[in-house]
Every structure is written in C-alpha cells, then in structure tokens.
Design goal:
Elements (H helix, E strand, L loop, with lengths): L5 H5 L17 E4 L2 E4 H46 L2
Antiparallel strand pairs: 1-2
C-alpha cells in the first residue's frame, strides 16, 4: 500500500492524502447546448428509481393487506364455528 489509510482516502479536509483536494462538488461539463452537472443527472436517475420503488412497495402492501384480510376472515370463521355449535 502507499501508506494512506481508509480514513485519509475519504477525508474531505484540506490536509488529506489527495493533495488538499476538497471533494463533494458537482463536476460541470460544457456541451453544445449549455452545461449539465453530474448532480442533476444523479438526481434524475434517483427520482426514477424512487418511482419504481414506490410502485413495488405499493403493490406489495396491497398483497399484504389482501392476504391479512383473508387470514383474519378464516380465523373469524373458525372461531365462529367452534363457539356456535
């Protein structure tokens, strides 16, 4: 290894092993129609991913709700049969 620890590699302070480079900023690239940042692209992809996650969670919750209702109804029917003989 080159003598740098894990903490030094991920440190954003001025005295880091990366020569005082401060990280965490967006890289701006110039294109023909203007500038785009990596942060904006990342946020867009995250938004798409969150929409998918939200849809999957919603369908999973609906399945859970339906299954629970069927289960409770079964228990209720079994209890009703045993108590009303």
């Amino acid at each position: 290894m080159n003598g740098t620890s894990w903490a030094d590699q991920w440190d954003n302070s001025g005295g880091s092993a990366r020569g005082g480079q401060v990280g965490g900023g967006a890289v701006v690239r110039s294109s023909g129609s203007g500038t785009t940042s990596n942060t904006a692209k990342y946020k867009e992809k995250m938004g798409q991913g969150l929409d998918k996650t939200k849809a999957v969670a919603s369908s999973g919750f609906k399945k859970l709700k339906t299954g629970s209702a069927i289960g409770f109804r079964w228990v209720k029917d079994k209890y009703h049969k045993t108590t009303h003989k």
